[in-house]
Write a structure and sequence with these properties.
The structure holds two protein chains of two kinds. Chain A is of the alpha+beta class. Helix content of chain A is 53%, strand content 15%. In chain A, the strands form three sheets. Chain A has a five-stranded antiparallel sheet. A five-stranded mixed sheet of chain A has the order 7-9-10-12-11. Chain A has a two-stranded antiparallel sheet with strand order 6-8. In chain A, helix 3 packs antiparallel against helix 4. By secondary structure, chain B is α/β, with parallel strands linked by helices. Chain B has eight helices and twelve strands. The two termini of chain B are 26 Å apart. Classes of the chains: A alpha+beta, B alpha/beta. At the A-B interface, helix 8, helix 9 and helix 10 of A face helix 4 and helix 8 of B.
């Protein structure tokens, strides 16, 4: 019995919230980012990160190349210096041999011209490669190091050439200094062309990354475009269309499911609204048509005063029905507005239920139904008294209509954890599960053949639900065919905990 | 002496039927269409009741009420309005209006409320009513017919007294439900009819002359129609 009870209220609670929230949500959408397309953003990120990675790789390789060349130059210069050192150590006084060796070593290097020079302690040149004086005067060399294994230095000569130079002080106290240098122009050219190729590679890579990135982004975003196209296609007349979930990636499937759910709710409330307006038109047209016809016929020929009185009375009844229908519809429409206020006051539930019971007692007695109140004393709630009476009254009137002679209608109130429960329980004919989810809909009648003849137009339970919602509460129904129906109104607990 | 009522209402048809209905119910009625004129008439005359529309040309109903109270006039005021929001209602009543009716309303409803207000301000109430051979004693809470005591529950007596006080004016079901059972909503069902049937079974059924009549489309009235 209670399985059914939660469904109608849950469904209706969500559906009734669609309108205002959706409106306010789209009204203030903050735009903080520049309005780039997602594809452009992804492309920029992709190309940017690829550029940085390639740049880093090229820089590292360049640095490694330069370091290797320098090390090789160092070794080369150290070797050459060591030859001269060896000669001077083995034959300290053979300067001719030294000059010949300098001459020999200086020629025949295709990679870069080698320059060598030996100075004595006073700075006088003992041996020198031809032409060295022009490019590399002795005083431009750095101070001589004690060992040939140290790092060589860069030197730019006055004539513009780039050189790698090394100066070594000869051990043994002679004070002689060996100066060796090699022309690096060739290496410089190599490095420069390397840089040029690196730049070219970088540029091409950047362009390639941008193009590939854009293509990938477009491709990746295609499902999103498809979703958006589907959504654009959906209008009030095509609300049944849904986003195809088949080919969507996992990330977007969740979004699409959310959209589809929203469309379901929209379609449902749209249909309900459509049905509602049609029902309004119908409910208004019937009495207006009756009135019009009745008066037209009445004016068609002279009649007796009694006859006129009869016609006017009949019209008055119809007017009364129209007025109360308009009243109910206005109430329902206004209750949707979030600004709608109700005049709450502190009510003692048992006393209010007793008032309602007293009013309906005579009708119940006539129908052979027992009407009892089982609410505990001292339960209070903050409610709009008129609306509360209307809700409970509607429920009692409903219960009276569907409970056979000998039955019982119980008005109960109890304090539960989630609020104050006010229940109207009957032992009537019950409502079939097929109708149960719809009974709170406006103009919904379980039996379509039952027209407004009885004055009821099927707004009763819709009003009850709206009244509960206006109080921040809810309304649930549970029913079993042949056993009876229980409608529960749940109201929030009063704010002060004095009676807790 | 009949009570004097001033109606300030700009809708021609409404004024016409209100005036007609109230005059036929035994009141003397003045009417005007604008707020300024209404205020002038209300300050000059000695009306027993003002019926004010809230929305009026030149000066709204609330403003008339405020000005009147400022000038020291305590004439009771009944507001008519097409706007039915709690805020409006509370505002009207806080400003010192005596009652508040939302259009569309039943004329019987208006009449009943007018009588309630006038009775409240008039002070001394008759202690007994006599309609044909039905006697109602409001002090002792007793009713009798042809000298025979009629046994009524407290609610039934309240109901009978309400009908008696309305002096032959029919009362609507909603008005009866509110005044007797303190139930403030328009009930679709024929609940009041059942109560009427019960009351009838006690005061009318045993007797030849019927006093409690149904007025179709309006409600119920207690009167001697012979």
């Amino acid at each position: 019995m209670n399985e059914n009870s939660s469904t109608p209220s849950a469904a209706s609670a969500t559906s009734s919230k669609i309108g205002p929230e959706a409106a306010s949500g789209s009204a203030r959408l903050p735009i903080k980012y520049p309005r780039w397309s997602l594809a452009a953003r992804l492309t920029a990120w992709y190309a940017g990160s690829a550029f940085v990675l390639i740049l880093a790789a090229i820089c590292f390789l360049y640095w490694a190349l330069v370091a290797t060349l320098d090390r090789e130059d160092d070794h080369f210069l150290a070797d050459k210096a060591r030859i001269l050192l060896t000669i001077m150590r083995d034959r300290p006084n053979d300067d001719r041999e030294l000059r010949e060796e300098v001459e020999r070593e200086s020629s025949g290097h295709s990679a870069g011209q080698l320059y060598m020079r030996v100075l004595d302690s006073s700075g006088t040149i003992i041996a020198e490669t031809a032409g060295m004086r022009v490019h590399l005067p002795a005083d431009q060399f750095p101070a001589a190091a004690a060992s040939e294994t140290g790092r060589s230095a860069e030197l730019r000569s006055a004539s513009g050439g780039s050189f790698r130079v090394l100066a070594v002080l000869i051990a043994g106290g002679s004070g002689r200094v060996v100066q060796v240098a090699m022309d690096r122009t060739h290496e410089e050219e190599l490095l420069s062309s390397y840089r040029w190729y690196a730049g070219l590679t970088l540029t091409i890579a950047l362009l390639g990354c941008a193009v590939a990135g854009y293509a990938l982004a477009r491709r990746g975003l295609r499902p999103l475009r498809e979703i958006s196209q589907t959504l654009q296609r959906i209008g009030s007349s095509t609300l049944h269309e849904r986003i195809d979930l088949h080919l969507l990636p996992v990330e977007l499937a969740a979004l699409a499911v959310t959209f589809n759910d929203m469309l379901n709710r929209l379609e449902e409330s749209f249909l309900r609204l459509e049905r509602f307006s049609a029902d309004i038109a119908h409910e208004l047209r019937t009495p207006v048509n009756n009135l019009r016809g009745e008066v037209e016929v009445a004016l068609g020929q002279p009649r007796s005063p009694e006859n006129y009185r009869e016609i006017l009375s009949s019209s008055l009844e119809e007017f009364g029905r129209l007025a109360s229908l308009i009243d109910s519809l206005l109430f329902l429409a206004r209750a949707e507005s979030p600004q709608h206020q109700i005049a709450k006051q502190r009510l003692e539930l048992a006393r209010e239920l007793a008032t309602v019971r007293e009013f309906y007692e005579a009708a119940a007695h006539d129908a052979g139904i027992e009407l009892v109140v089982t609410a505990a004393d001292g339960l209070v709630a903050d409610l709009d008294r008129t609306l509360f009476q209307r809700a409970v009254g509607n429920l009692v009137a409903n219960a009276l209509a569907y409970t056979p002679r000998g039955g019982t209608i119980t008005l109960n109130a109890a304090r539960e954890k989630n609020g104050l429960h006010v229940e109207v329980i009957d032992t009537g004919s019950g409502i079939s599960p097929a109708h149960l989810p719809h009974v709170f809909d406006r103009f919904y009648r379980a039996d379509p053949a039952r027209t407004s003849g009885g004055g009821s137009v099927g707004l009763g339970l819709a009003l009850v639900k709206t009244i509960a919602a206006l109080h921040g509460g809810s309304c649930t129904i549970a029913s079993e065919i042949g056993r009876g129906t229980r409608v529960s109104l749940v109201f929030p607990l009063p704010i002060s905990a004095a009676e807790a | 002496m009949s009570s004097r009522i001033l109606i300030v209402e700009d809708e021609r048809k409404t004024v016409a039927y209100l005036q007609k209905g109230l005059v036929e119910s035994g009141f003397s009625v003045d009417a005007c269409k604008s707020g300024d004129e209404g205020l002038r008439l209300a300050q000059a005359g000695d009306h027993d009741l003002l019926i004010l529309d809230v929305m009026l040309p030149e000066r709204d109903g609330w403003s008339i009420l405020t000005e009147l109270r400022k000038a020291g006039k305590q004439t009771p005021v009944l507001f008519l309005t097409a706007r039915d929001s709690v805020r409006d209602r509370v505002k009207g009543l806080q400003m010192g209006a005596d009652d508040y009716l939302v259009k569309p309303f039943a004329f019987s409803e208006l009449l009943a409320r007018v009588q309630t207000i006038l009775r409240r301000t008039a002070g001394n109430q008759p202690e007994t009513f006599r309609i044909a051979d039905l006697e109602i004693d409001l002090v002792c809470h007793k009713a009798s017919r042809s000298g025979q005591r009629v046994d009524l529950t407290p609610k039934e007596f309240t109901f009978l007294a309400l009908l008696a006080r309305s002096k032959g004016k029919p009362l609507s079901r909603a008005f009866i439900a509110r005044e007797v059972w303190d139930v403030n909503f328009e009930s679709d069902s024929n609940v009041v009819d059942v109560h009427v049937r019960r009351l009838r079974s006690k005061i009318d059924d045993p007797y030849e002359r019927k006093l409690l009549h149904t007025v179709r489309g309006v409600g119920y009235v207690l009167e001697d129609r012979t």
